[in-house]
Specification:
Blueprint (H helix, E strand, L loop, with lengths): L7 H8 L3 H7 L6 E9 L5 H12 L9 H6 L7 E7 L2 E10 L3 H11 L4 E2 L2 E12 H20 L8 H14 L1 E3 L2 E3 L8 E5 L2 H9 L5 E3 L7 H8 L2 E5 L4 H13 L4 E3 L12 H9 L2 E2 H15 L3 H8 L4 E5 L5 E6 L3 H7 L5 E4 L2 E2 L1 H9 L4 E4 L1 E2 L4 E2 L2 E5 H9 L1
Length: about 400
């Protein structure tokens, strides 16, 4: 056996603890647990290992990180050593509890790897892990609190962050997979469903006690959602942004929507409180009414085609507008066809020129809603495109 080292009394005190006693010490102020593998080319015992750790790191890191002083101050715990010997070689595990910060703990861990001998025997220590003991405790608390909630139906104070984590853990387990999409557990059995954008929205509604939800997970509506809308009362509960508008637009084209609900301005579904969720769903409106109200709001804030046409008169220019009457492009009329062909989401074309059947046909292909010019060689409408001239607009204003 490779002989014992200096500090025999301290070594025996530190190394003689049982594993259960060491574990009890971790319940205190310990933040981290350094774990390391030990390989020794010889036979050694626990006091030898602990003695080498204290002896060979002494003075290495200065007084502030001296292991003996840290142990006396309670900033590190007692070192645990587990050894096995076989054919003249010793292997084992070293565990060192630390209440230092993570940087100081990492320095202590690195210092362990500088130990090259235990007594006269060659040795190698390799740090394998620095465990955050507090995170393990938090996971235990969450798990145990969840068990208590499920068993007794009790809840913890809502002001505590841990409560939210418990709720999230409990509700996350309730999310089911419906053809690859996150959904509430009552989706299939409910006569009415709520369609939301993503998994976080489903989870937030679950936290509010609403279980008949499904997320589309993108702007392309999945076929399972389309099938669900055929035989159920459908509420689309989507964010008040362009993403929500695009989802709603496609959903109404490929499926059936009965009601539309929206979160308050500037908020998203996933961040609403239970009270806000209930209020938003209570204030849902039939889809026809929602579309009508949106059109009215758009018309209210939209500049009139007559005003735009008068500004363009005599300039030989054209404007391409989106559905919010924002100018996508202003170009010479001679470039109109080419620009229209390459521009997406054009809602209206207003230009200083003559509307021809060819231009109306191109506008229809691009899903343009209004084609407005000085005069027209086509009449009233071409497919879904509404054709308006200066005369039409002036007559309307005069009524």
């Amino acid at each position: 056996m490779c002989g014992t080292l200096e500090g025999k009394n301290l070594v025996e005190e530190v190394a003689g603890k049982k594993r259960e006693e060491i574990k009890e010490e971790l319940v205190g102020t310990v933040k981290y647990l350094i774990e390391a593998d030990l390989q020794v080319n010889g036979v050694v015992e626990r006091p030898d290992v602990v003695g080498a750790i204290f002896g060979q790191t002494e003075g290495l890191l200065g007084e502030d990180l001296d292991l003996r002083e840290l142990l006396k101050a309670g900033r590190i715990g007692r070192i645990q050593v587990e050894l096995k010997t076989d054919k003249g070689r010793t292997t084992g595990k070293i565990r060192l509890p630390s209440s230092l910060d993570r940087y100081e703990t990492a320095i202590i861990a690195a210092a362990l790897e500088t130990i090259e001998r235990i007594g006269p025997c060659e040795a190698k220590i390799s740090v394998t892990k620095i465990q955050d003991v507090r995170e393990d405790k938090r996971r235990f608390i969450v798990k145990r609190a969840k068990e208590i909630l499920e068993k007794f139906g009790q809840t913890l104070p809502e002001t505590q962050e841990i409560t939210e984590r418990v709720k999230e853990t409990v509700k996350a387990e309730d999310i089911k997979d419906y053809h690859g999409l996150p959904a509430g557990p009552a989706l299939e059995e409910s006569d009415a469903i709520i369609i939301v954008e993503g998994r976080a929205d489903v989870l937030n509604l679950l936290k509010a006690g609403i279980k008949n939800t499904i997320a589309v997970e993108g702007t392309s509506i999945p076929q399972p959602v389309i099938e669900l809308t055929k035989n159920k009362t459908v509420t689309a509960f989507l964010d008040n942004d362009r993403g929500g508008d695009l989802i709603l637009k496609e959903l109404m084209q490929v499926g059936k929507v009965d009601y539309i609900a929206r979160p308050p301005p500037g908020r998203s579904v996933e961040e609403l409180t239970r009270k806000e969720i209930i209020k938003a769903l209570k204030n849902k409106v039939p889809v026809e009414k929602a579309i009508s109200e949106k059109a009215e709001r758009r018309e209210t804030r939209r500049p009139s085609f007559l005003e735009i046409l008068k500004k363009l008169q005599g300039t030989l220019k054209a404007q391409l507008l989106d559905e919010n009457s924002q100018v996508l492009a202003e170009i010479p009329v001679r470039e109109l066809r080419e620009k229209l062909r390459e521009t997406e989401n054009v809602w209206a074309v207003v230009f200083d020129g003559i509307i021809t059947p060819e231009l109306a046909s191109m506008a229809q292909e691009k899903n343009v809603r209004y084609l407005v010019g000085m005069r027209s060689r086509t009449v009233g409408a071409s497919g879904k495109v509404k054709v308006l001239t200066m005369t039409d607009l002036t007559r309307r204003k005069g009524r």
